[in-house]
Design a protein that fits this description.
Elements: H1 14-22, E1 29-30, H2 47-58, H3 73-84, H4 89-92, E2 96-102, H5 103-118, E3 123-128, H6 133-141, E4 144-149, E5 151-152, E6 157-158, H7 160-168, E7 175-179, H8 192-204, E8 208-213, H9 223-226, H10 228-235, E9 240-245, E10 257-263, H11 267-285, H12 291-301, H13 303-334, H14 342-345, E11 350-352, H15 357-367, E12 369-370, E13 376-378, H16 387-399
Parallel strand pairs: 1-12, 3-4, 3-7, 7-8, 8-9
Antiparallel strand pairs: 2-10, 5-6, 9-10, 11-13
Helix pairs in contact: 2-12, 3-12, 5-6, 5-11, 7-8, 8-10, 12-13, 13-16, 15-16
The structure holds 4'-deoxy-4'-aminopyridoxal-5'-phosphate.
Length: 400
């Protein structure tokens, strides 16, 4: 009965790893997927995570019963506190509802389905470019996807004027997806002053902000600093949604742990919103998994564990920032044509190199370096050992 099926294309991001795995070269380098690697190129489980997992295993009072549809209560409360801040007026007024979801992607999907069902405007505006999964997630959730200008290739920076124009002409009430920090794939974020202007525009047009926070703490090394744009919007008392992921900042990629928060106008509305979120989640996957959220809740709850986490998180962020400097220096010392200062200016896990698809495919073929065809490289996959190889490859690709 499935004979008619044509083979589906690989996911453009995950497909990079499939191609990498097939390459027998001993020097091959995967800069495609956004996952942190150590200086030795190995995946990292944070010490604080290992310690909490040991405690959880040794605690015989724990069981594996289903958790509620909306997830672990502690996890939800602490996740809201992490993104909004302990003294957030929305939390104090009980105007926030938070539900545990399957990492960032699941949180976006649940939020998208909720909006498609209950919000009066079904159009969501995404930045150009954006994470490749965004349009698919929101389309399948039942929203119609439009775009707003974000990145200016000429300056390799923010197209702030274009952004203001496009959001300024969006129909009132439209949903706007905003990357909370460390924009993927460009590494280009608005300044806080620009965020303030974006906020004024969004509120004056009654647009609905939906923040995607996949990199809190990963951009600057500070959890609070990276949450500033979200907190700016919460402070004005308006409504918003936030999808949080613990994949990157706690290295819990495969545990699929995240949260969707919806900030409402009153505690009463928030509790009705939560009741409707349950109806979205129940037929989708019934209830979320227990393990990852238990790890996160334990860390967020305990001052010492939390402190240890921030130290390890800062070390990851600093290593990425160092890689930016090393790559920039390596290109400069080779005299590679072009201005590469965007490598040190951009923020977060990725550098949007400006290399085109043809140059990327040359680097893959000749240097066994793998990345997405838009020229995005994961700085977290780079080490002092592999920087010279990447710099050689970029130099050769540009000089061709
Ligand atoms: N949003 C953005 C911008 C991302 O870069 C990612 C991960 N690449 C996600 C959401 C979702 O990641 P996850 O589902 O693994 O939390």
């Amino acid at each position: 009965v499935f004979n008619h099926l044509v083979r589906a294309p690989e996911d453009p991001i995950l497909g990079v790893t499939v191609a990498y795995n097939k390459d027998p070269s001993p020097v091959k380098l995967n800069l495609g997927v956004g996952a942190y690697r150590t200086e030795e190129g190995k995946p990292l489980v944070l010490n604080v995570v290992r310690r909490v997992e040991q405690q959880l295993i040794n605690d015989v009072s724990r069981n594996k019963e289903y958790i509620p549809i909306v997830g672990l209560a502690d996890f939800n409360k602490l996740s809201a506190k992490l993104i909004f801040g302990a003294d957030s007026p929305a939390i104090q007024d009980n105007r926030v509802t938070t539900v545990q979801c399957l990492s960032g992607t699941g949180s976006l999907r649940v939020g998208g389905e909720f909006l498609a069902k209950h919000y009066h405007q079904r159009t969501i505006y995404l930045p150009t470019p954006t994470w490749g999964n965004h349009p698919k997630v929101f389309n399948l959730a039942g929203l119609s996807v439009k775009t707003y200008r974000y990145y200016a290739p000429a300056t390799r920076g923010l197209d702030f004027q274009g952004l203001l124009e496009d959001l300024g002409s969006a129909p009132s009430g439209s949903i706007v997806l905003l990357h909370a920090c460390a924009h993927n794939p460009t590494g280009v974020d608005p300044t806080l002053e620009q965020w303030e202007q974006i906020r004024l525009l969004i509120r004056s047009k009654a647009l609905l902000p939906f923040f995607d926070s996949a990199y809190q703490g990963f951009a600057s090394g500070s959890l609070d600093a990276d949450a500033q744009p979200v907190r700016l919007f919460v402070a004005d008392g308006g409504e918003l949604l936030v999808a949080q992921s613990y994949a990157k900042n706690l290295g819990l990629y495969g545990e699929r742990v995240g949260a969707l928060s919806i900030v409402c106008k009153s505690a009463d509305v928030a509790s009705r919103v939560e009741s409707q979120l349950k109806l979205v989640i129940r037929p989708m996957y019934s209830s979320p998994p227990i393990h990852g959220a238990s790890i996160v809740a334990a860390i967020l709850k305990d001052r010492d564990l939390f402190n240890d986490w921030t130290i390890e998180l800062k070390a990851m962020a600093d290593r990425i920032i160092n890689m930016r400097q090393e790559l920039f220096d390596a290109l400069r010392s080779r005299g590679t044509p072009g201005d590469w200062s965007h490598i040190i200016k951009q923020i977060g896990m990725f550098t949007f190199t400006g290399l085109n698809a043809e140059q990327v495919s040359f680097m893959t073929k000749e240097y066994h370096i793998y990345m997405t065809s838009d020229g995005r490289i994961s700085m977290a996959g780079l080490s002092s050992k592999t920087v010279p190889l990447l710099a050689d490859a970029i130099h050769a690709a540009v000089a061709r």
